[in-house]
Write a structure and sequence with these properties.
- This protein is of the alpha/beta class and 253 residues long.
- It folds into two domains: 204 residues, 3-Layer(aba) Sandwich (Rossmann fold), CATH 3.40.50; 26 residues, no CATH class.
- 28% of the residues lie in helices and 26% in strands.
- The protein contains six helices and eleven strands.
- The strands form two sheets. It has a nine-stranded mixed sheet, sandwiched between helices.
- A hairpin with a 2-residue loop joins strand 7 and strand 8.
- The N and C termini lie far apart (59 Å).
Length: 253
Amino acid sequence: MKIAVCIKQVPTREWQPRLNDDKTWVREQDVSYEMNEPDAYALEESLRLREKHGGEVVVCSAGPSRVQQVIREALARGADRALHVEDDALGAADAFTAASALAPAMAEQKFDLILTGLQSDDQGHAQFGPVLAEKLGIPHSTIIMEVLVDAGNLKVKRELEGGWFQHVAMPLPALLTIQSGINQLRYATLKGIMAAKKKEIAKVAAPAGLTPRLKVVALSAPQKSKQTVMIGGSPAEAAKELVKRLREEARVL
């Protein structure tokens, strides 16, 4: 199988956000980056499918040169090669723009299966996968918790609301958006890190005329609305005061 997995570089979750001057995105110079967590599960699932059915795993990503950080990480975990649509304007691109940037280059590769994370940790729209599938003219399914390949067809398990699941049969080629927790992530080994340095990263220019479909008007950092109150006194006095405040102020008793 020829499997593509789309990954995105996002700000680390532990980083305290600092906005740029016009309040439309984060300050690039202050950010540390990591691989989007749902995409890491998609990568792991692609590696497991390759181990079962053979073939290759190709990492696909769009963004500025810094994106090679997570591309190299994916190659170190076991992906065979990478495709990078490089353009500084794609660093904070919306889902439609990112999919439009990747679709032409990915169409030439004629992948049997494309996996993406369910959504990104920074924008969280969960639209990239479906838009990419429409751009490529292939069927897609979302929120996947299990992937089975049998005789050139797919059988997938989708997570629904209220603890329900749906089992769907699909033809190949197809695109799936992978739910976090579908598998146990592996880490890059020293051997994998060394091997990643020799693996191919094909750089492709972004298509001309890409027009953003989403405009960020303004962002704001979360504001703290509560503060910690220390209750002094002996344990018995503190417990009595705590119960009083829970009853009269928090009104939870």
